[in-house]
């Protein structure tokens, strides 16, 4: 049995160190807070006083418990104060020089049995351990910000770390109410290793003027259910910190996806490091502020903007889940909808699916029976695209096959009246490729809904170099009328969401291929450490491994980046017919229904 960890020193009382100290003190540990800045130490005490006072006010703890917590937290300015600690957690600035100095001084202060933990998320734990006099007692203990709220703790072992030390801190993490995940020593570990690659790609997307900062952030929040958009999150983390993490990741991986986007360096050098500076990708009300204020890049009001075309009737082509969902969205919003399939029977089946969906809404009290009946009455099922002769907007939601879509658009070109807007819901194919088969490419645009269409708020509006301004304006106006949030993006593979989501999913698969972490640990890390609604392997199995592979191939083909090449494990599973939940087996096995 290793040493019980009852007295713990925290070196560095910035935001993270203060949060860790609070977690420890609340859990009954004696906490020695050390910082060379007396102001930082005073701020840490004030922060604990304020948070415990809020807990008393909310009746989560008693006043006596609050006094006990405060009594367990003492602050000092000298590392000598750590002499009696069984565990020391350093959370000093993210440079080898500073951390190595702290470890050298601690070697001369603490007992031989003490464990030394680094809070780094970017630097090599092995390198820090190798220069210590007790490398077997050095490990990584990576909390997530804010430490009192976030459940994940990554326990990082180097090749030198003794198992009893790992067992002790893992047990401590559980006693603190955290979820420990065991990982090896590589930059970013699991959560940040996946997160920062995604953040870097978002920064590069913004830098390329592909989409606005607001649209990138809205797309990832609404399209993936994330708590924050990537650029807002970079501002919160600190753009300089993100750059440091990415530099360390790139040094280890030489993967271009980890090479920091130049804009991160430019903002860092200019001192525009995010919230803490009052300005980063966004501008804030004050340094350290949380409120975004308008600046020169804030989108202007739409006064004087192009007026869209009148849309009163909509045609939806297709009979699958996406087509019926889109038809339901338009009908609910008051549009007359023609739902056309390859046969009348398929069209009738699609309308019946909509009736079931609306029935569920009635049962849950979200819709009245009268509203359901009115919605269904607006939908006319048809067995031919000839029924689109009078629609103002035609939306296709057929198979994700370029030749199939081209043939359909050739038919729409012949059938639809002049001035009708023709929209494709493709998620990965070039919109211009379907536009060019028509005699009116200026009327063609991408309108990428997300599944399930009635529930998901996002629509990616994809204009080609040929799309007319009033067609773009029409689709944006229609999105607002059907209560969706439109985001603008150009006609390139993946648009916003898939271009950022699928490289992240692919990198998670590579972690498993390399035996760095398990499926369960990676999923837990991203849900608990990143606030993701689903872990990457849960999501892959829901989306379908065949669909995921197809999107990865499109991204790799368009951008030609070696880092975007589909992970071999994904290709093997698809070849074996393991496609996820729909086949009963993907990365995990599922009970057959």
Automatic annotation (TrEMBL):
GO BP term (any one): fatty acid beta-oxidation
Keyword entries, A-Z: Oxidoreductase
All copies of domain 3-hydroxyacyl-CoA dehydrogenase C-terminal, residue ranges: 188-284, 494-590
Domain of life: Bacteria
Entries under Pfam families matching the protein: 3HCDH, 3HCDH_N
Residue span, 3-hydroxyacyl-CoA dehydrogenase NAD binding domain: 7-185, 314-491
Database matches in Gene3D superfamilies: N-(1-d-carboxylethyl)-l-norvaline Dehydrogenase, domain 2, NAD(P)-binding Rossmann-like Domain
Pathway connected to this protein: Lipid metabolism; butanoate metabolism
Molecular function, one GO term: 3-hydroxybutyryl-CoA dehydrogenase activity
PANTHER family: 3-HYDROXYACYL-COA DEHYDROGENASE FAMILY PROTEIN, 3-HYDROXYBUTYRYL-COA DEHYDROGENASE
Family: Belongs to the 3-hydroxyacyl-CoA dehydrogenase family.
NCBIfam families associated with the record: PRK07819.1 (NF005875)
Name of this protein: 3-hydroxybutyryl-CoA dehydrogenase
């Amino acid at each position: 049995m290793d040493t019980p960890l009852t007295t713990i020193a925290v070196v560095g009382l910035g935001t993270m160190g203060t949060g860790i100290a609070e977690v420890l003190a609340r859990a009954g540990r004696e906490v020695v807070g050390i910082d060379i800045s007396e102001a930082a130490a005073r701020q840490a005490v004030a922060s604990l006083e304020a948070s415990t006072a809020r807990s008393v006010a909310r009746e989560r703890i008693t006043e006596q418990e609050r006094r006990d917590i405060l009594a367990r937290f003492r602050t000092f300015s000298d590392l000598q104060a750590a002499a009696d600690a069984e565990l020391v957690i350093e959370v000093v600035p993210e440079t080898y020089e500073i951390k190595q100095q702290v470890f050298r001084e601690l070697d001369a202060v603490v007992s031989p049995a003490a464990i030394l933990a680094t809070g780094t998320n970017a630097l090599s734990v092995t390198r820090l351990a190798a220069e210590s006099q007790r490398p077997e007692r050095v490990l990584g203990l990576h909390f997530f910000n804010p430490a009192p709220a976030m459940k994940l703790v990554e326990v990082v072992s180097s090749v030198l770390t003794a198992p009893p030390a790992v067992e002790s801190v893992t047990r401590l993490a559980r006693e603190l109410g955290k979820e420990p995940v065991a990982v090896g020593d590589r930059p970013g570990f699991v959560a940040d290793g996946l997160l920062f690659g995604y953040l870097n790609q978002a920064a590069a997307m913004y830098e390329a003027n592909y989409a606005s900062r607001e649209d990138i952030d809205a797309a990832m929040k609404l399209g993936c259910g994330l708590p924050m958009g990537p650029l807002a999150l970079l501002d919160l983390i600190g753009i300089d910190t993100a750059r440091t993490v990415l530099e360390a990741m790139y040094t280890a991986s030489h993967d271009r996806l980890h090479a920091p986007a130049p804009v991160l360096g430019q903002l860092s050098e200019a001192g525009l490091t995010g919230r803490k500076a009052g300005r980063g990708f966004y501008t804030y009300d004050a340094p350290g502020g949380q409120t975004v204020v308008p600046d020169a890049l804030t989108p202007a009001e739409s006064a004087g903007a192009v007026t869209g075309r009148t849309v009163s009737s909509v045609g939806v082509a297709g009979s699958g889940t996406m087509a019926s969902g889109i038809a339901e969205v338009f009908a609910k919003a008051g549009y007359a909808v023609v739902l056309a399939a390859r046969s009348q029977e398929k069209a009738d089946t699609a309308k019946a699916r909509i009736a079931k969906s609306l029935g569920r809404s009635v049962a849950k009290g979200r819709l009245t029976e009268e509203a359901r009946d009115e919605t269904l009455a607006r939908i006319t099922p048809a067995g031919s695209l000839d029924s689109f002769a009078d629609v103002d907007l035609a939306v296709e939601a057929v198979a994700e096959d370029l030749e199939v879509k081209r043939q359909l658009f050739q038919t729409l070109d012949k059938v639809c009246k002049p001035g009708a807007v023709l929209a494709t819901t493709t998620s990965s194919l070039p919109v211009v490729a379907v536009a060019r088969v028509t005699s009116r490419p200026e009327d063609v645009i991408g309108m990428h809904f997300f599944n399930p269409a009635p529930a998901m708020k996002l629509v990616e509006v994809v204009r080609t170099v040929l799309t007319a301004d009033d067609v773009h304006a029409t689709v944006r106006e229609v999105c607002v009328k059907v209560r969706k949030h439109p985001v603008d993006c150009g006609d390139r593979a993946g648009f916003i969401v898939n271009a950022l989501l699928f490289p992240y999913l692919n990198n998670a698969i590579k972690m498993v291929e390399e035996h760095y972490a398990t499926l369960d640990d990676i999923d837990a890390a991203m849900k608990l450490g990143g606030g993701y609604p689903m872990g990457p392997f849960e999501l892959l199995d829901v989306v379908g491994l065949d669909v995921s592979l197809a999107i990865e191939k499109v991204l790799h083909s368009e951008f030609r980046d070696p880092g975007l090449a589909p992970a071999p494990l994904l290709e093997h599973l698809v070849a074996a017919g393991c496609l996820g939940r729909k086949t009963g087996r993907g990365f995990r096995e599922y009970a057959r229904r």
